Amino acid sequence: MRQFKNNYTQRKQLRIRRETIERPREPPPPPPPDPAEELLREWPELGAFGVEWVKKWLVLRERLIEIAKVLRKFPWMVEVKRQRPMSILHPNMVEVYVAKDGSEACLSLNPPKAFCARDGSVREVKLELEFKRYETHEEKTREVYRPKGLLAFATAAKEYVRIL
């Protein structure tokens, strides 16, 4: 009698195991997408700064998108950032200036050093600007700067609009 009970319980356990094994399993739900990876997929220009930097500053998503829009507008800036790795502490330190006549654009990652492009060539310059006034540019109120000191005389008083 005892052996019969043991056989019965063993068969029952085997049947339960078979049912659980044969039961079709639902795949586990996919993990939630990583917000930093989504942002990089949408704005691949930010990849020049590095994935870890984007993850660190994801809380400033709107600022990162502003940076990406400018980098998309001026693709040479992405190449400059990739070729010259430097640590950038905060996204608000990234500044972009455009000459009012459109002849020059400058990317400043660590002030006062900047990279300026004119006629397709990029060079590193020391950009010292002083605020002059506010002006409407690309449907936004922007700051207008002029070179400071002796540089103002050397550049024929070119004005720059800060777009970022």
Structure notes:
The structure is a single chain. 38% of the residues lie in helices and 26% in strands. A hairpin with a 2-residue loop joins strand 2 (105-110) and strand 3. The chain has a seven-stranded antiparallel β-sheet with strand order 4-3-2-1-7-6-5. It is rod-shaped, with a radius of gyration of 29 Å. The protein starts with a helix and ends with a strand. It has helices at 2-22, 35-42, 51-56, 61-73, 75-83, 150-154; strands spanning 95-99, 105-110, 113-118, 121-126, 129-137, 140-147, 160-162. The longest helix is centred in the N-terminal third of the chain and has 21 residues, at 2-22. The model has no long low-confidence stretch (mean pLDDT 83). It has two domains: 34-85, no CATH class; 94-164. The protein is an alpha+beta fold. The chain contains six helices and seven strands; from the N terminus they run H-H-H-H-H-E-E-E-E-E-E-H-E.
Quick recap:
The chain has helices at 2-22, 35-42, 51-56, 61-73, 75-83, 150-154; strands spanning 95-99, 105-110, 113-118, 121-126, 129-137, 140-147, 160-162. It is α+β, with helices and mostly antiparallel strands. The protein is rod-shaped and about 100 Å long.
Strand order of the largest sheet: 4-3-2-1-7-6-5
- Please give the count of helices: 6
Runs in which pLDDT lies below 50 for 5 or more consecutive residues are: none
What portion of residues belong to β-strands?
A: 25-35%
Number of strands: 7
Number of domain modules: 2
Walk me through the topology.
Blueprint (H helix, E strand, L loop, with lengths): L1 H21 L12 H8 L8 H6 L4 H13 L1 H9 L11 E5 L5 E6 L2 E6 L2 E6 L2 E9 L2 E8 L2 H5 L5 E3 L2
Antiparallel strand pairs: 1-2, 1-7, 2-3, 3-4, 5-6, 6-7
